[in-house]
Amino acid sequence: MSTTDVGSTLPSAKPQKGRHSSKPIVKLKSTGGKKKPSKIQRREGRWAYTFISPFYIMFLIFGMAPILYSVYIAFFTWDPLDATHQYVGLQNFRDLWHDSLFWMSLRNTFSIWILSTLPQMLMALGLASILRNPKLRGRVFWQTVLLVPNITSAIAIAVVFGQLFGRDFGLINIVRGYLGMSQINWIEGTISSHIAIATMITWRWVGYNALIFLASMNAISRDLYESASLDGANRLQQFFYVTLPQLKNTITFMLVVGTIGGLQVFGEPATLGGSFDGGDNHQFSTLTLYLFKQVKDNFAYGMASAIGIAITIIVAIISAFNFFLTRRISGDES
Amino acid sequence: MTTAVASPITKTKRIKKRRKGMSPFSYITLGIVAFLSFFPFYWMFIVASNSAEEITKVPPSLKPGTNFMHEFHAVLEAVPFGRNLFNTVLVGVVVALSQVFFSSLAGFAFAKLEFRGRKFLVLFVVGTMMLPSQLGIVPLFMLINKFNWADDLKALIVPALVTAFGVFWMRQVIDSQIPNELLEAASIDGASVMRIYRSIIVPAILPSAFVLGLFSFLATWNDYLWPLLVLNDPNKYTVQVAINQLNTQAYGIDYNIVMAGSFMATAPLLLLFVFVGRRLVGGVMEGAVKG
């Protein structure tokens, strides 16, 4: 495929010519400050817009339009099998507010999110601290091993862990039996099923996060450690007073990304329960699972859209809170 | 190291600390983590290759059995797995190639070309990454139905042709890997934007583009939320939907078959990982520093 095909087949946003007459539309970005006027002809200014337009066109059709439409149909009872869609105002949101299953799903989602996020962050920090030790042998090997769990799907892994956490023949209960501990009906219990799901999430992501921490740690200047050690800081103090503050941005980033991912948890509970119910008593139903239930089992598209909007609002609130919190704790943002 | 002339005291101190840090405890921890990382895959195969009796006795068998071919055939009877595998590879490859191509173009424009609204448009890309995918999923599903793409692999491919993540990734790569002086020199010599893209950008970013392609391929292979929604015809399933089907159908409790399916859906990725694992590690860490 020749690269020039793209320019001709994809509609490009038109650059606003008139307002740019004084300077070249396109010039190569220079960081030095002293910019030479580029020799690139103005006609080629359109290339920039042509290059970025595929993304925007695709986003407009498959991202933006559905989102706006989603807000629209959230105000209707919208059954795909029934052509008449009734406008009901805020009724879907009111129903959701009084829907105990929605609140239960919200609680479950939060519970799973906390159970998976906190241990995961701590373990990832610990692993990264081990991996950054210059004396470690076979670092590349260990790094690669850490990423192995991340390449599998939540579904495949939920199948395995679902079996491992099984009541009668699950390996975990068998081992507990040998250790003289009681058998736990992991999947039937509320917190125990959350622990099982959080374990799957942690297993999949802890190595990935450790690598991110490791990369950020490697980027910290050696001088900071030198001077800390000159001031008599021991290894632990160095970790708390040098490493952690320097990882502030990384931790914020991971919390925000982790929140967005954590509030969308779906594959693990769906596979563990084998349905969109989230267990016999909905004990591990999550928000996304509930959204799917409305679409696939109840054909309530308006309600499903309302749930989608609710998820977005919750994500926005928590992201803002995360951002605010890390700013407050660490002073000014760099 | 810049502080080669540090006082001997700090030097010995540091060496002592390093020694202290490298206790066997670190290796034991890593060893345990490595074991835990591999065990679920191993267990998948154990269950997939043993009879139900071997797995449900106490203690269960911890050795691979001889039953795998039997379970393999059982999977093939339940779902057209070969077809599903082909679908998955097809979608993954097309999406990966397309994402690399479109993302590198947009990334080039965002990193090296100046145009009206560049800053705002970059922020816009980052902003779209923050939106949870559920927000528009219902209307997107309706849209796909309107296009008559339900039960069509187009439903998986077209919306994923170019993503904000890929564009942002490529912008970061091109911004950091290609010196502006090189591009300025080329443009002074009369090279067109297209020429610069082809002759300078593409060769320089190939390794990073490969990693982005791998990530896209893996993400597509493992995606289940969207495929689960739009695919109802078993012949159109991807492997994840196939596993889900094995797990929810009449085979709900037959762990041997479900695990055999999971193993068959995972083994190709493990094999791929043997060859590209190090590149992926590099990609994750590179992205972390820039992000």
Q: Might you state the CATH topology name of the largest domain in chain B?
A: MetI-like fold
Quickly name the level 1 CATH class of the largest domain in chain A. Answer: Mainly Alpha
Kindly report the average pLDDT value of chain B.
Answer: 86
> What is the CATH superfamily label of the largest domain in chain A?
MetI-like
- Structural class, from secondary structure content of chain B? mainly alpha
CATH architecture heading of the largest domain in chain B: Orthogonal Bundle
- CA-atom Rg of chain A in angstroms: 26 Å
Helix percentage range of chain A: 55-70%
Range of helix content of chain B: over 70%
Report the span from N to C terminus of chain A: 44 Å
Q: Low-confidence segments of chain B, ≥5 residues, pLDDT <50?
A: 1-9
Main interface: chain pair and counts: A-B, 119 and 114 residues
The radius of gyration computed from the alpha-carbon positions of chain B, rounded to a whole number of angstroms, is 25 Å
Strand percentage of chain A lies at: under 5%
Task: Walk across the major sheet of chain A and give the strand order.
Answer: 1-2
Task: Tell me which CATH architecture of the largest domain in chain A applies here.
Answer: Orthogonal Bundle
Remind me, CATH topology of the largest domain in chain A? MetI-like fold
Top-tier CATH class of the largest domain in chain B: Mainly Alpha
Summarize this structure briefly.
The complex is a heterodimer of chains A (334) and B (291). Chain A has 334 residues and is mostly helical.
How does this structure look, described?
The complex is a heterodimer of chains A (334) and B (291). Chain A contains 14 helices and 2 strands; from the N terminus they run ααββαααααααααααα. With 334 residues, chain A is mainly alpha-helical. The two termini of chain A are 44 Å apart. Chain B is mostly helical and 291 residues long. Chain B has 2 domains: 20-66, no CATH class; 78-290, MetI-like (MetI-like fold, Orthogonal Bundle), CATH 1.10.3720. Chain B has 14 helices and no strands. The radius of gyration of chain B is 25 Å and the shape is globular. The interface between A and B is large, with 119 and 114 residues.
